[in-house]
Structures are given as structure tokens and as C-alpha cells.
Design goal:
2 domains, three-stranded antiparallel sheet, 12 strands, disordered N terminus
Amino acid sequence: MVLAAGLGLFFASVGRCAVSLGIDELEKSNFAVLHGKRVGLITNPSGADSKGRSAISVLYQGQSTGFRLLKLFGPEHGIDGQTGAGKEFSNGRDDRTGLPVYALYNTPEGNYRHPTPQMLAGLDTLVFDVQDLGNRSYTFISTLGYVMDEAAKENIEVIVLDRPNPLGGVRIEGPRLDSSFTPSFVGLYDIPYVYGLTPGELARWINAKYLARPCKLTVVAMKGWTRGMVWEDTGLKWIPTSPNIPTIGAARGYTATGVLGEIGIESGIGGPAPFQIVAGNDWNTSDIARRFNALHIPGVRASPIKYHTIKGKWAGSSYDGVYLQIDPRSAGNLTAINFQAIEILEDAVDDFSPFAHTIADQRDMFDKVSGGTTVRRQLVRGTSVNDIVRSWNSGVVRWAVERQPYLIYGMTPAHPENATSVIAASAAIP
């Protein structure tokens, strides 16, 4: 494992990729799994090969090998990745290819998070190539499940072009869904908040455990990726997955501060370091930073900061807060930082109460992202964050066992058998 991490850092330092992505492996195979098929592609700019070419361009140009790319589908934020969180966007046509583009999100005409039979008409295969964050509340994995569900009904194959989990494949943390809580688009699966799987591995679990009727699933595996790798080890360039995730730092920070934004606490969105800041107005930032650092969270260091938003609804506003520097290989519980921040602010900021000035929609979204009402009720009762985190442990331990049959990659530099054997295994899981 040490050798694998060392090699990853070496390749990254000289500008070479230690990891060959699923889309790279598809290209190397001359698109063998697509031959003779009519194809739809679910993607956005983060779906690119290791040279930076978009999945749309790669598949469009690859049609000469014997398949047809007929339709494109965009998850939340649109196929161009530019639409803001929660904002509607419309169906249309792709300027580069002329292909029809269908929104798998909210449109002015209605909610189309599930692809409709009309959207899927004329297709044999759906290819999914979108970079995930490794976090249950980031909606791309919900889109994956909805696509697989509808594909099964229409007898359409789903091919997942696998990508790294930017948090690595070892980190598992956070609450699972409350048993009585209704799943939502930001909390669809009973898995920990940080679940430690690649999109292809999660797709295998979805097929076996979430879908009433499994689809025909193919995973085109990466080569060179191991569970101990964080993004910096891969040698890959980070491509923004959405407007507020422009960097790998923001991708990691999303897990540590993303919940806070649901109840109006600033997390740096619109500024230079989105999701890497906890901020408000007229705070004693030195005191708050001292309190964070006194927690001795492994790999996390807080520094006082004053920042100005440069875009978004509150562009030009100024905030006082702390910047969280997070070591990507840290053992610190990133999910817990959201709630540790609340506990600190209750002590450090006069008249601060996390839910006193929220509206029902904000509390509802906090619950959805947290996986139910349990965490909010614990905070209101004054349960310590240490006890809250301990209450997650049994679910995390169960998940470490439950996920085992669906793993493709190990901890050693040996990559999976090959794409073909992973493809065969995908359909065989009970």
C-alpha cells in the first residue's frame, strides 16, 4: 500500500496519470462493449478521459467502430455543468454534435429525474460517465439509481465507466438513513454519508440491493486505482463537477461543511474556497479557530479568515470565519466537522442557535441530507457531538461488511482481473 501511494505521488508529480479511467479502458478496447448498439450517454464535463477529452467527444468520434450515439442526458447542473444547485434547466440540443439533450432533473415543464420511456425509446444501452464525490447527498448517485431502475423496466443495458472516489475507497463515516425516514434525492440509499465505493462498485450494490428488478449492468473498470488512493495519487486533473465544486479541495470540503449550508451557515460558496470555510458575521475568528484546533481532528487545521463573496446571490458580502485545511489522507472524521462546528458556535457566538432562525424547508433539507430527523433531534437535545458520532458506529461497521461483495478494487497495486471479468461479475450478484 505504501508503494502504491508512493507511485501515485510520483506519477502526479511528473504530470502522468497513475490511473486509467473506465472511459480510457473503453477507448483502448476499441469500444467493444458498444459494438452494434444504439447508445444514450449520461454525462457532464467531469466525464472526461485522462487526456481531458469529454465523454461526448470520445463516444461521438468512436462511432466509426460500429455503434451509434443517439441521445445525451444531463444530471443536476446540466450537461454543461453550469446550472446552479437546485435550478431548473431545459431539454435541448448539443451544439457540438447536434444530438438531443434530455434533462434528468427539474425542468420548466416538470420533474424528470427519472428518464421517461419516451426519452429511452430507440436505445439499447445507457452509458453513465459522471465524476462522483463519494458522498450520499451529492445527487449524481441518485441519478444513477433512477437510470438503472428505468433501464431495467425498458430492458436496456447500463454501462458504468468507472472513476475514482475522490475521498478514497477506505473512508466510511457518517449516519445512515433513519429506518422510518422517507428516502429523497439527496438521501436515496441506506448507506453511510461517506460510503467508500467507486460509482461502478455502488452501481453493483444498487443493482443487487436497491432495485426491485435488477438491470443488465456492465462496469468498465479502471486500471491502476487502489482503495488507499486519494485524488492526488491518481495524477488526474480535477474537472469541476458543478459550479460550487471547482477544485478537489471543494470536493473534500463538501463532506465537512455541506450540511451547514442547509441551515444558513456560510461555507464559503461564492468565495475563493467553497466548502472549506465556516463563517458568519462579527465572529471572534481567532477564538473559533482555537476551539476547532483544540479538538485535535487528525489532518484538519483551522485558521482565522475574512472573505468576500465574488459571485452568487450575496456577491460582495463579507464574512468572518475559519478556513479548514484538510489533509486528504487524514483519519479525521470529515462528516463530524459539520456538527462540531455547530457545537463550537453554540459556545462561541452570542445568541447562536442552529435551528432557531430556520424555516421549515431548511430543517427539512437538513434532515434529508443527514438521513433523517435523528441528528437534528440529538443536537436540539444537547447531545454531545462525540456521542452523536458514536451513534453512527454500528451502521458504519455493518456497511463495511455489507459492501464487501460489490468491491472491484483492492488495497494493493494489483488492478481488478480486467474489465471483462468485472462485467461478467456485475450481472451475477444475487
